[in-house]
Amino acid sequence: PHRTCCRTPPGATPAMNCRAEVLEVSVEGRQVEEAMLAVLHTVLLHRSTGKFHYKKEGTYSIGTVGTQDVDCDFIDFAYVRVSSEELDRALRKAVGEFKDALRNSGSDGMGQISLEFYQKKKSRWPFSDECIPWELWTIKVNVVNLANEQERQICREKVGEKLCEKIINIVEVMNRHEYLPKMPTQSEVDNVFDTSLKDVQPYLYKISYQITDSLGTSVTTTMRRLIKDTLAL
Amino acid sequence: MDTDLSSQDRKDLDKFIKFFALKTVQVIVQARLGEKICTRSSSSPTGSDWFNLAIKDIPEVTHEAKKALAGQLPAVGRSMCVEISLKTSEGDSMELEIWCLEMNEKCDKEIKVSYTVYNRLSLLLKSLLAITRVTPAYRLSRKQGHEYVILYRIYFGEVQLSGLGEGFQTVRVGTVGTPVGTITLSCAYRINLAFMSTRAGEDNGAVYPSVEDSQEVCTTSFSTSPPSQLSSSRLSYQPAALGVGSADMGFPVLFAGGLNAAHPHQLIGPGKEGGVPPIPSQPAHGTQADQERMCTPLDGVHYSAATPSSSEDTETVSNSSEGKCGSPHDLLETIFIRKVGAFVNKPINQVTMANLDIPFAMFAPKNVELEDNDPMVNPPDSPETESPLQGSLHSEGSSGSSTGNTHDDFVMIDFKPAFSKDDILPMDLGTFYREFQNPPQLSSLSIDIGAQSMAEDLDSLPEKLAVHEKNVKEFDAFVETLQ
């Protein structure tokens, strides 16, 4: 994702004027990556345009976005993503980190991954640019452990059905035609879009994640508690 | 009516709606070909990609769509519908989905045609790409081939949902408001796949290529439309065979003058890809006549049609249209048909899964009532023996064994060749394999024992510390040797 140094505007919570959607899924460990990619790619399909080419007098033309089908290996499911290897790599990297963090947290894997779309607002020196989020997608993940092949087969199908529902939910939100940043002028385009990719142009986005343990607290708190308890001989 | 809309805007809007309709059909049909679709992104606009999306145009599909539209545009009371159906190799057929592109009266006068409407139509096409992979027919279409094929039919006019069976579900893809009405795109899909027999559930393996040279015209019994509206079961790329009469050419011509710089040419002549057809002298009459017909009111329900024969449709629709997307895929379960062999004495209701005449019946999903015997549901007590293997052999049998097996440490297993069956004794090999697949958890890994040993460790710490302190000199000497 586009690396930026942004600060939240003073006095503003991230939720101000920011549309927030939450999706929840329960998956088996090996399904985490595909399920996350399916959801993130579906959102980004709707939030990416072709590359802008500005011409004189402030007009611009837009490149073409290709799409491709992706079949999942561990889920009975298929989804459509934007044909951009760069974008796919970026998402896979983020999802891979999330999956590893989930795995390292212990057997009761629970966490959430967030995709936030934001706009940059230039500030004067000495202040750094502000990042103003306008849409936030959060996917809460609960990792389940299954005992045998039979349960795994059922899980493949069930998770596939659940993801179908999620796709329908996402499309429903997209169809509301709520706030979208204004189409920018050439000088402003980097404040609205990620122009670093060579074939498509998604809105500026960032991906972050959080891991929680089964008690709902963060992992570091739990580790601290464990060590304290162990040393209290 | 639309006095606020400039003529240029009006022309643009009609053009957008027309090409949106054509692209919608392409996306739907391509999603049911049974193949994975892949198109490339291009950063430099070529100008021939409508809505900034790379969607291929299959000429035959465009031809069928234009034939159905016959120069008109979707309007109030006149919807463009793409019907997806399934036909088995034995000739049974069934409607699976109806995709509807409709227009209602709700106008948005303020919206900017060339910009906002266009971008929203582009977004709607993306949503359509996503939703077409999510309905049950997608998975069916990926498996089409020898057992069944997926057909499409395009018609224009009133939506006919009666072929979808009872309790069909609907999913809305999206809406776009325009100054002349609101465009709505939705799908009604069947969930009652009752007539599907075992054939439909089987995995066909290789995906059958859906492009062939021969073109079959289906005169199927399910359709009440004239045969000319039916499309072939295989999509074929036949550049030359399509009609080249002026009636076909007339339709695209209307928009020849309204092109702006961003989209130099969008005309798709039949039989040509990307070429610009010659311009006949008279403009298409379709759109003019269309405007006069746009006054038909549409009542509030999504799919209601004006004719009395579809009154029951209206009822079903109002029940179904609020329905959420449940589990569309429940219906793809295979149904095993029990065959009882000749000369079998056993009454049918005593036939268990193990006696079904299917190979490897032992590995078929267990019946629910046998869960009590499942070692994973009620794990056996930690066995006294060391080896977990032996532990699993000692545990009570699972679904396959009708007699209790008392084994010693190791079992002599009679080798039974595959497909051999013995109604009296269970298949030991099968039982063994199933149990071995589900070994109980290692006792050293279970939490109780872990906690126990930790407590023990902690208790013994002071003693251990004392011992180590005594031997401190030895340890120091050892450390010296290491340095």
UniProtKB/TrEMBL annotation, chain A:
It is found in: Preautophagosomal structure. Transmembrane segments: none annotated. One of its GO terms (cellular component) is phagophore assembly site. This is Autophagy-related protein 101. Its main location: other. The gene is Atg101. GO terms for molecular function: protein kinase binding. It comes from the Eukaryota. The keyword Metal-binding does not apply. Belongs to the ATG101 family. GO terms for biological process: autophagosome assembly. Keywords: Autophagy. InterPro entries: ATG101.
